[in-house]
Amino acid sequence: MIKTYALVKDGVVINTILWDNEDQPDFDYGKSSGVEAVEVAEGTAVDIGYLYSKGKLSAPPLTEEQKAEIESRQISDNLSLKEFLVSEATQRRDILQDAVDMDEATDEETTALPLWKKYRLLLSRIDANIAGEIQWPDKPSF
Q1: CA 22-24-28 angle, 5° bins
Q2: 68-100 residue pLDDT tens
Q3: Total Cβ atoms within 10 A of residue 123
C-alpha cells in the first residue's frame, strides 16, 4: 500500500513523498537537519508550504494577493449572475407583455406579468459589485 509522507522542517512542509514499501521508511537522514517525516492520512490534501503543528497539517494562510484574487472573482461572479438574472427576467417579462398587449394572455400570464416586473426591478436595485454573498430576491414561480 502506498503511503504519503510530508517532510516537515520548522513546522512547514518542505516536500512530500510516496512510499510503496510495507516497511516503515527510515527517515533518520533528515533528523540531523531538523526534518521530520509525518505520515499523511489517506484522503488528506497536503502540499509544500502547508503547516504542521500539534500533529495536524493545515493549508497556509492566504497571501494578500490571493485574497484580492478571490475577492475579484467573487465580484465578477456576482456581476455575471446579476446580468444573467436580469436578462432572464427581461425575456420572461417581454413574452408576458406581448401576450397581454395582444389580448392573448391567459389569467396566469396576466397575473405573472407584474410579478416578473417587480422581480426585475428588485434585481436592478442590487449592488452586485461586492465580494461575498448577495441576498437575491425570490424568482416568480410562473
Answers
A1: 150
A2: 999 999 999 999 999 999 999 999 999 999 999
A3: 21
